[in-house]
Specification:
Length: 361
């Protein structure tokens, strides 16, 4: 069952330098009890998308629709959104230090979230806050509940944010870089916890991350974003083994070991484009080694490719050119040469190089 259905979402910010088109015609669905992974470089629109769904982008021009259980989140009033936010849809923010109030103790902030939506006493809410801190593996929760955010380590602050998000057992949890600053053991514990909550509550999960390893292990579906648009959508297996879009190909090439033993990682040429002055055609074409003349002229829309059921890619390459093998890259180069290679003013790619890498922060 579809819990959240986003269609034609557009988010822009007017600035003195021009209009920042942060999200452009984005559509996706999230099923109850399933996990959607959203990946892409910094500035691709991942976090802006999540914040827009919760009405947390003041000053932004937002259009489109985001149906959650039949209600359009983008048209809800402030009071209605306040009832949804935290109770039905919760979010783990990317930076816990700036998301937690520095003047209030951690336990008070968690209990406040509980009391805002449930009729419980202050003591009962604080007791639940202690239980939640214990649930996310914070040591000595009875003591930490009285700590200020600056008295906790970065990893503990992140776990406190996760505890707050889970406090009201939401139907949809949006996790923006949920495992940042956590060591591998705690990451595994928290992802196991989120998986158990999904199974128990039928909770849907959106994971926004740069960690493709996390996406591979936790996500059912993957949405790859570039310059505010969807570059590729697929189930996790199809995306990792049958990628179609050259940008996705570059992201996969950045995983250590993806190029084989001794393989050399090469970054994608150039930088993400300005969202004020986007290039014509496909926004990725200035960095794409398979760019053709048509890529400079026209922006491709998402279209089905042969990677698997529901696999879509916004690229002018033929739909059957999926995969990450060197032979597939050679076929892409030959096709680009036949269709007219775009002159991008950069050195030709090394034909012996396998894979590419995107620069992550």
């Amino acid at each position: 069952m579809t819990l959240l259905s986003v269609r034609d979402l557009r988010v822009s910010f007017p600035t003195s330098d021009g209009v920042v088109r942060a999200v452009r015609r984005l559509s996706f669905d999230v099923e109850a009890g399933r996990t959607l992974g959203i990946v892409g470089e910094t500035g691709s629109g991942k976090s802006v998308t999540a914040l827009s769904l919760l009405g947390l982008n003041p000053g932004a021009d937002i259009s489109g629709s985001a149906l959650f259980e039949g209600r359009d989140l983008l048209t809800l009033g402030a009071d209605e959104m306040r009832r949804v936010r935290g109770a039905d849809i919760a979010m783990i923010f990317q930076d816990p230090l700036s998301s937690l109030h520095p003047y209030y103790r951690v336990g008070w902030q968690i209990s406040e979230a509980i009391r805002a939506h449930a009729r419980v006493s202050r003591g009962e809410a604080m007791s639940r806050a202690v239980d939640l801190l214990r649930l996310v593996s914070i040591p000595q929760p009875e003591r930490r509940v009285s700590a200020y955010p600056h008295e906790l380590s970065g990893g503990m602050r992140q776990r406190a944010m996760i505890a707050m998000a889970l406090a009201l057992r939401p139907k949809l949890l949006i996790a923006d870089e949920p495992t940042t600053a956590l060591d591998a053991t705690v990451q595994a514990q928290l992802m196991e916890l989120l998986g158990a909550m999904q199974e128990e509550l039928g909770m849907a999960l959106i994971i926004i991350t740069h960690d493709l390893g996390l996406v591979a292990s936790a996500a059912d579906q993957v949405l790859v974003m570039y310059a505010g648009r969807a570059a590729e959508k697929a189930d996790t297996t199809s995306l990792f083994y049958s990628a179609h879009h050259p940008y996705t190909r570059g992201l996969l090439g950045s995983i250590p070991g993806a190029t084989g033993a001794g393989g050399r990682l090469v970054p994608i040429h150039g930088n993400p484009p300005s969202l004020i002055n986007l290039p014509r055609g496909c926004a990725f074409h200035p960095r794409c080694e398979f760019a053709m003349d048509v890529c400079v002229r026209e922006q491709p829309d998402l279209a089905p490719v042969t990677g698997g059921p529901g696999h879509e890619s916004a690229c002018w390459l033929p739909p059957e050119m999926v995969g990450v093998a060197p032979a597939v890259d050679d076929a892409r180069r030959r096709h680009a040469a036949r269709r007219g290679r775009a002159s991008l003013g950069r050195p030709a790619p090394d034909a012996q190089t396998v894979g590419g890498a995107a620069t992550h922060d």
